[in-house]
Amino acid sequence: MTARAKKYASSTDVARLAGVSQSAVSRTYKPGAKISEEMRQKVLAAAAQLDYRPSLIPRIMLTHKSNLVAIVIGGMYNPFYSAVLERFTVGLQEAGNQVLLVHVDSGHSLDAVIPKLASYRVDAIVSALSILSKQSADELARFKIPVVSFNTPVRNEWVSSVCCDNVGAARSLVELYLARGGRRFGFISGPPASPASAERLAGFRLGLAAHGIDNLAMAVADFRYEGGHAAALSMFAGPDRPDALFCANDLMAIGAIDALRRTYGLRVPEDVLVAGFDDIPSAAWGAYELTTFVQDGQRMVDEALAILRVAAASHGPVGEVAIEVPARLIERQTTRRQPI
Amino acid sequence: MTARAKKYASSTDVARLAGVSQSAVSRTYKPGAKISEEMRQKVLAAAAQLDYRPSLIPRIMLTHKSNLVAIVIGGMYNPFYSAVLERFTVGLQEAGNQVLLVHVDSGHSLDAVIPKLASYRVDAIVSALSILSKQSADELARFKIPVVSFNTPVRNEWVSSVCCDNVGAARSLVELYLARGGRRFGFISGPPASPASAERLAGFRLGLAAHGIDNLAMAVADFRYEGGHAAALSMFAGPDRPDALFCANDLMAIGAIDALRRTYGLRVPEDVLVAGFDDIPSAAWGAYELTTFVQDGQRMVDEALAILRVAAASHGPVGEVAIEVPARLIERQTTRRQPI
DNA sequence: TTTACGAGTGCATAGCTATGCACCAATCAT
DNA sequence: ATGATTGGTGCATAGCTATGCACTCGTAAA
Q1: Which of B10, B28, B62, B234 is buried deepest, with most CB atoms within 10 A?
Q2: Residue A29 belongs to domain spanning
């Protein structure tokens, strides 16, 4: 509480030094404002001398617009999400926004951080949290902050969603597996609460049902390498081993492949077909060459940014927007088996 | 420019509704302030009715403290850096700060974004950019914002650094290689401008020199899997192949392993010893089991946060702090060869 | 020469919260 | 009973920028 020296020079300080009014300083930094070149130079000289940077804080107060967008994310162990985060950051910066990064333990709702974000007057929120119940979403709407929910199909007046077509993709995989000679199917899921995992399972089941198949080995994991490894170990411990395994994401698929090859001595794809989801960089690595679905992260991010632009333009709610982006199959070696 | 409805209720609105003064509202939200329970309840009731959230913006103006810390990062393709980002975020949030995430293309300096950060009045900056010249650092100091530079040993009055002992680690690897029978050495570097890569090379050379070895095959890459792959292809194209390869990070080491095994049919570790740096999760995967150095990311982040705490407490510069954290060798299968 | 106009400038104020200060009503000590 | 303390309360203002408004000049049009 001592008389701490003022850290930043203010526009008033600059004005005094330059011998002009504070308005002149303000107008110097506003593009297109009416100000003579001569005065602008005087101001800039004084500003340079004082290391002046205009503060955005009062502007936020006046305009009710902070240009801050919060990105709420649950974990970056999955390269897909760190890539998405990077794309969002770049895209938002290009649009003139700044990114407030908020980490919430995955499994927790984002309710707890909302009041804090409201206090910073963020213009919008992007949530990559896998869990966001309808109830949370309604709670959220009370704050009247536009929210884009990534890969979680919850929405209301203020909450939009951008998702990948998990059901359709998973469903189509069944055709590939059958063509490649798969007969006994297995699925390794993410956490029970994950909508993405649930949709991929549902789609897989739909595809199987279309061929009259209702037998499906199941194991629950956590979207991580270790979880996929452990799940595969238990799923393949018994006598009745699947020969076509679908994992809810690539990390688990890679863990499963290592388990099958190294612990059980099984060959992929000769003994077991394996596919994942996300197309993370490691999926293309020589040791795995994993068949997987590309979630078009760039496109999904672009769609989300478009929604945010609309929300920024119309100051009201953006309506119940829900965008679904198709997933694209990339077949690599883990499913390249000749049909029987 | 229409008469846009006020989006957020202000403390004055709440005060009017509750029939108290604006001061009372403010004090309701300040822990430990003198306010009667009765009044607090009245205020809270009115606040709930209006969905009031106190704005932090005016507080920033008054206190000259935003509780915003910027993290500047160049790329998250390397899991080591996304893990570091996550740890910083969690740590800063626990300390009551919010994180402003700034992406700068690696290779660019952070000079360009500093004015913007100054405009947001960030309390401090964490830079994980691999490039930060002495000149940039001095430029930076003019803004009087405390900066912690991660893994780049630049510093001045306002810029501190937290680094890992790259030189010592790389140097010690030579002993291991010699004990495991390595005789012809190779090094795959990161981008030429990367200090981390340069230090690891320097340490490796020091270790070799201590044994009178000055022959070292070199290839330059970019810290990525594909770069490591290509570099290994060219390094092992000739007749005089190394039998002990050190890569400046794990991603490149993994790319190199895939190139050696799959393109040249070489065995790792029997034909070539390989080691990397970072201990990213993939290094432990069954297909690679890569020997590497753990950068103790948690400890490095903790040290950086400690510096930021000091900087926050003393409002002045924090002095020329430079902290070096040791790296720890983890030997896995890629160097487990019996000595000749 | 007068009128009109446009460019440029300064004044004053809004925007929202935190806090020093003055003040008031009780409660307590003497 | 009086003075002193404590716990609450409201008033007024600081903090910094953007902008509507009034005003002053030159300059172009009439």
Answers
A1: B28
A2: 11-55
For residues B50 and B82, state if they share a domain.
no
Residue contact B121–A61, C-beta within 8 A: no
- What's the whole-model pTM score? 0.91
Q: What pLDDT, on the 0 to 100 scale, is given for residue A3?
A: 31
> Is the shortest CB-to-strand distance from B22 to strand C under 7 Å?
yes
Mean pLDDT confidence for B315-337: 89
User: Residues B14-31: what's their mean pLDDT?
Assistant: 92
State whether B92 and B46 are in the same domain: no
Average pLDDT over residues B219-230: 97
Q: Are residues A218 and A287 in the same domain?
A: yes
Given the structure tokens 């997987």, which residue do they identify?
A: A292
C-alpha A70/C-alpha A54 separation (Å) is 23
Give me the total of CB pairs closer than 8 Å, taking one residue from chain A and one from chain B: 151
| DSSP string across A137-201 | HHHHHTTT--EEEES-----SSEEEEEE-HHHHHHHHHHHHHHTT--SEEEEE--TT-HHHHHHH
Tens digits of residue pLDDT in A82-117: 999 999 999 999 999 999 999 998 767 777 788 889
Asked whether residue A61 is domain-assigned, the answer is no
A2 in a domain, yes or no? no
Residues A116 and A44 in one domain: no
Q: Same structural domain for residues A291 and A210?
A: yes
A282 contacts in chain B (CB < 8 Å): 282
Question: With 60 as the cut, is the pLDDT of residue A340 above it?
Answer: no
List the nucleotides on chain D closer than 7 A to a protein CB.
7-12, 14-20
Instruction: Answer yes or no: do B74 and B176 share one domain.
Output: no
